[in-house]
TrEMBL record:
Alphabetical list of PANTHER family matching this protein: EUKARYOTIC TRANSLATION INITIATION FACTOR 2D
Positions with biased composition (Basic residues): 228-241
Molecular function GO labels: translation initiation factor activity
Renumbered residue ranges of the record's region Disordered: 219-241
Domain SUI1: 133-208
Domain of life of the organism encoding this protein: Eukaryota
Annotated protein name in UniProt: SUI1 domain-containing protein
BP term (GO), one: formation of translation preinitiation complex
Amino acid sequence: GGSVPLLRVTTVYRPSDAMKPLFRARGATDGRAFLDEAQVLAILEAHVAAVSAGGGAEGGGGGQSSHSAWALDPLLSDALFRGGEAAKDPQAGAASMPPKEVRRRFLKRLEQWTRVSGGALEKPMHARGEPPKVVLTTEQRRGHSVTCVAELAAYSIDPYTAARELAGVCGATANVEEEALKSGVQKRVVSVQGLWDRSITEWLAAKHGLPPSCVENRAAAMKGPGHAQKKEKKATNVRRA
């Protein structure tokens, strides 16, 4: 069939409560909007420039490269230090700080989210912190190794299509196993005969754009032989998208 567009996985941010007054002062009034790193840093730098132009720090606004330190006005100080562990930081209450340090702390204080878009998703998905994971496990059944791929539904990847494609990629039998959960939901797991965790991870990246950060390979984490795919055992027909 036609190729599905690749998934895009990016880190996006929202201001924490202590940071919202600074964002509002710069016109970013929707505290629930997701912003990327460049947008967040642009808000920070616009704020520093405005404070500087207002006579807070010496020199005109904008020429940040000439400042070895940025003045921490009350809004910026709150954004960096108000509430939680940060309030105990020895730097809390400092009047100024090097720009690089301000940027680092500012990013760290934001709420971090993972945005997943594209692929077969109807609309972008946002997860607080880490993204959901596709889970790879291996097990022995009647003396044979089987690799199982669970949680494909998190990324709207169709398990039946996946089984068909993985059978070709791995040159092995692949099936979809259905399991009814207590909630009444059908959980579908793709099982492939043999140890194929590495080839499947590569296929998820090449075919779907799913980075390794979205795959939990429990097979590779297990110690001892017989759990994970050997390095030299390569699926020759994994095509890069």
